[in-house]
Amino acid sequence: MSWFRNTSLSLARQLSRSLDPRHDYEPQACYSSFCKHWQQAHDIILKSQPQHLHDDVLGVVNHLEQLATLLVLEARAREINHLSNPAACLEYLLSENLLDKLYEWAICTGKYENAVRLEQLRLFGSLISHYSTQVIAAEPFLRPLLKLLSSFRNQLPPPNLESQLVAVLNQLCVVLMQNMKFIDLFFLMTHTQNGSQAEFIIGRLLLSSVHREGATGSAARDALLLCAKMSARCAPLAHCLLAGNACPVLATGLSGLYSLLPRTLDDSIHRLTPDDVNQIHKLTLFVDSLEFCNAVAQVAHPSIKKHLLDLLYQGFLVPVLGPALLQSGGGEQAAAAAYLELLLRCGERAGLLRAVLHFLFTYQYDGLKVIDVLLARLEGNSQLSLVTLSLMETLIDLNCEDVMIELVYKYLLNGQHLAPSYRHKISDPEPYRESAMAFLALSPKCCSRPIEKTKEWVDELAMSGRRVLDLRRDDDRRVNGVNGDIAMSNLVHEVNFDYGNPNETLYSNYHAYVCDARFELVSRTIACVNWTAKYDVVVSKREANNNSTKEMKEIEPQSSGREQDSLVSVCTSGYDTLKTSETSEKEPHSLTSLNEEKTGESKEHDSLNSFGESSGYDSLRFRNEDNEDSDTYAEESFWKSFVKVPPSVMDDEAPSVRSWRVSAESIIGPLLTILLRKAATLLESDVTEICRVSSILCKLASLPTPLLSSLLLCSTTTLQYNIPSLFQILSRLKEEVDIVTEDLENIDDLVDKARVFLIQREMALVKSRVQTNEDSRTASRSQRTRSPAARGEESPFRRVESKRRSLSTSFSNMFNRKTQASPPQQSPQNVHYIQSRVQKPTFTQEAYWNQSATVRSVLNAVLLDEWLKELSALAHEHALRLSADLYEDESYVRSVAL
Amino acid sequence: MNEQNNSNSKEMNELYSVFHQEYIIMAEYRMLQTENLQGIYVIPSYENSLLWYGVIFVRSGIYEGGVFRFTLTLPEKFPDDKVPVLTFTSQLYHPAVDANNGALNLNEVFPQWDKKQNRIWQILKYTHWIFHNLNMKAPANIEASLNFKTNKKQFMEKVKECVTSSINRIYDDPPTEDKHYITFKPYDPSIHETAKNIMLKAPTLNENSHGFSWVHQGSFESFSKEEM
Questions:
Q1: Of residues A467, A441, A447, the one with CA closest to residue A748
Q2: Contact A691, A816 (CB under 8 A)
Q3: What is the mean pLDDT of residues A636-661?
Q4: Cβ distance A179 to A128 under 8 Å?
Q5: Which of A221, A326, A510, B137 is deepest in the core (most CB within 10 A)?
Q6: A residues 322-381 closer than 8 Å to B (CB)
Q7: Preceding amide of B79 cis, omega within 30
Q8: SS3 state of residue A797
């Protein structure tokens, strides 16, 4: 069909675009030219003979091009002149029944039929895009269009025709979306052995193209998504789409694409980044399809959503994804877990997420739940373990109550892990405040080396020609306005940090940890607002079993009587004693005391609840009775106005009989057990793993649920003796490190090296991250232009590249991200530094730290020192949050979030 | 070397104690926010979190209409040290307030500061309390106390005087540069209307950032609620 790319044709097309309706449009000339072209084309059609079909087709196509050009010109002129000109050409086209004549001739053009059909599609395309509502219901337009569309029903068009067809269908969907009343026009009756039924021709044709790669596929998906959207408002359409097998096509497509994914991944991948997805073509296709299913499930009619989710469950999750996770071979398991992690990040709450989570946490293969299999893989330090850790992190980041119940709360709800006397103290702020200081006191001895000393040491190295820390490019040499050499000038002693400067390390910056802890805690608090419980009290077993939540519910009605200020009564009572006052107004007074009587009861009730279990001072509450004796002294009556609330007596359950036998795992659950066990071996672990483990533990600790945070953060909370608290584990580690490093002569040297190594790692990651952020931004932009599915929604990787610009200071964030695919920028200084690295193993390489267990423990001790600061900051924030009884009050979140 | 390390760790500890103290003060502030103390507004100074600026609007009683400024000064080692000092900076004629320096006598009510029992909001509540309970056991202003008990007419006159003076001095220039000093401006709709409307509007949290749950209320069982 090379003749088809005739220059004159494309010239005509270009012409139509370049013609300026303001100068080149002359209505009468345009109209007569239009008529003339059609008459000539019509003449050819009438006289068309099989012998000179080639020339006939060429001629007609040529005229059609001109017709389209003139139509577009007229349409654009009308747009400019606000539709004042008559649409003469269009009316002529419709009155002549031009499109129908064309269609009838086209089916006789034999081997040129597709060429003519392509031209017809183009003509329809221009008509729809320029005259959408005027033509769509017009018989001379609609009938040939439907005939043409129907002709594709049972026959797959060649690629160029398919892309044009999809483009027209897409345009149709856009028009229908705006005018849904026309949708009935596209239901065609089809007759099969089973009788006749309506078929939505647009949907039917789109389905065969949705799994195409590239522009055609994504245009088809966009269009089908519009159909899904319309189905929500049009039950017959939903019915047609269901009958037309839309759901199985989508679900099997997803399964098909999944099965094409690489069976194993590169060893270095612990979590798939946008770069990874873009680099692995099959993965891109899978993610596209996944997002599409997700979007359809979100917008479609409930019946479609249900059917689609059922099919995905039965046709993808159970038979494909599950077995992939359970197959043998560490590499394969790791890849499957990484894909699952990606799936969780792409899924939306209103879309696939529930189905996937439900599958993970309830579906059993041979009596084993999928999640239990995955949890068991956390052990060890293989790629599989790291990928599974990432998976857990993603699950936690969903802030989904169901997930957290399964992973954590269901084990902790009864408080079996707590010594009985501590079961009612988990929401007391004091222990958090104490442990904030206690964590800091666990800093290993060797880490008390002043950071200034490390800076001096770096300066000396720099003098001798080795700039180990100079990663800056020339343009950002200015650090805080000072031409400092090393990005360590900001030490914790200074208060004015420039957090916007990527060259400034956050190492050892307690203030930054505090800011980060606040951010974490507040954002989690906001996220957990939708949960059904606060997990701030121990629920006795009986209650949990009875599904009754006395304690939990009692928290709720707080606000009822709360408006009333307890001071009101105080005012009025004091006021009574001063009856002489002339400024008095009786009305408001009696009103308030009336209110007082009404709310007195709920108030009392309230104070009992909220203060039942906290530290001493809380038991003093303001009393509301106003029977003050006017003879008493103000100082004395003041305290009398407080009422002593008896400490709430809750029946302490006798410690579970089981607890002395059972393992920690059955008390606090496998996830916490494994994470704590990993924390206990922190000194021997690899940096990546430490960062991951500590990051997950901190994420768990930043959930606003005292049930969990008390376990992780409180140093004084006594747990059942076979469960170590995080604090106990870390104090043991401190002792170990202190013993190991006690007699080490070069300990200061090693600490300096460890610090510099970590700062360097941080800087490299910040740099690569800045770049990756940019990459992902452009990637998501291109994705958006391709599919409106993504428009409005967040980019698919929103949970990877979190949008926070403020601070990412948690030390796990600082040092994590080994998995970023983008290499650090190769600035001249960097090259120098990399070259020097090649020569011999220096301390700036991971290998250096593997040379002996002692050296590794020094590095890890320095990491531990940082982690302690992070934990301390979190404990401080929890104490702050818990120190006022209405801590969930939105004003807290807002005041703090600012 | 060891000495250096020790001095460093001492320095670090000092730093951490500053954070610790700041957090305790923040918690105190949080607690008083939820106590809903009517007519009392306080804010820690921008420069120094141990100094708080405050103002009380007396809404009823013989001091009704009075707008009295005060400062609250926490001791250096708060909460381990002495009782915070509350000083009225507006002229206040009151049996419990020292006429010379404006200090509110807290000795009787807070003989010492027990960090387990005592909270700053209690001082503020007491500050509110004295405007309605004037019968002082240990008056700081003996003359006022006597007048209150024996010569109510004169007492009332002096009270009126200080109420009027307090109102007249509302818009006075701030005595300090501190950014957190509480200042007042006459109501100007073009400036204040928008802020007022924002305050009156119910806050809405960003829906997008919410987590989610399919747990049936009170069941503590995952996926116990059908979707939607």
A1: A447
A2: yes
A3: 52
A4: no
A5: A221
A6: 349, 354, 357-358, 361-362
A7: yes
A8: coil
